[in-house]
Amino acid sequence: MHNIKKNKISIWGLGRHALNNIIPAIYDLESIELYGVFSRNKSIVDACCEKYGCKTWDTPDQMLQDNNLDTVMLTTPTGLHYEQGLDIINAKKHFWCDKTLSMNYEETEELINLSKKFASSICEGFMFLYHPHFEYIKSCINNNEIGEVISLNCRFGLPPLENPGFRLKKELGASCLHDVGSYSIVMILELFAPKKVEILNSKLILNKSNIDVGGYALVKIENSIMVYLEWYYDKSYRNDLDIWGSKGSINTYKIFSKKPNFRPIIFKRGLNGSPEEIELESSNHFTSMFDNFNATIDSNKKKNHERASILKRAQFIDKIKKYSF
Asked: All domains of the chain, ordered by start, with CATH?
């Protein structure tokens, strides 16, 4: 039996998210090899290399010139993604990126077009899309289990963080919309694709440094479904979804971020309000996400689907910004 070539990947950026979620998920996959890590923080790099048996480089250029490296997973602040993404794709590496891919549609379109030129896969990390939690809700809608959807409400908010990091630095892409609000936007685009989605009203809440720290959007889908989305920093934690249909309703908690051992619960009500509590299996959505990303490398169909999805998300986020001013 021939050995299957593993996709050799490097993680660029070693913040808490990368250390706690990204690296462990990749390390557990048989189809992907954690080949290297890169960060300006030498002590964290050294600890990762020792723990996972991977390599590092002195500079980003050295990393990107490594002919054994296939893919770079970028987990640096959002404001750096565009320039670093250009370098990754121009080095003829596959470009995977933590959300969001860039700070605006124009930058995203350029990165997408460059990935087409080099036939590179380009993927954006919204892990919740690959969890049984989201898949169950999508199947309920697609299978008409709660009838025609009337409305959807979603709230995602973070409490004050001890170490907010890039979230307070405009030059690094600080934006609650890109960091938190993007989740709910991606959710409705995926749940109701390919229906027409129209923004009726939106607002970004700015702090004294002109950084958006919260916001909301009122959206209409196919002239019939009303959607209300809210996202905030420095509020009580919310991570929930409520969907009202003509034959029933769905309410659930932790639709976006969750630990691998978390078992989601769906609160489902029928036509007359009779309750049903459905407990789903736990799953590591990061592992599932990277399995899906890996499948894009050898499939032009999957590559093009991911590119189209990324562009649609970026366009919608830009529209929210324009409606807000």
From this structure: 7-126 (3.40.50.720), 132-282 (3.30.360.10)
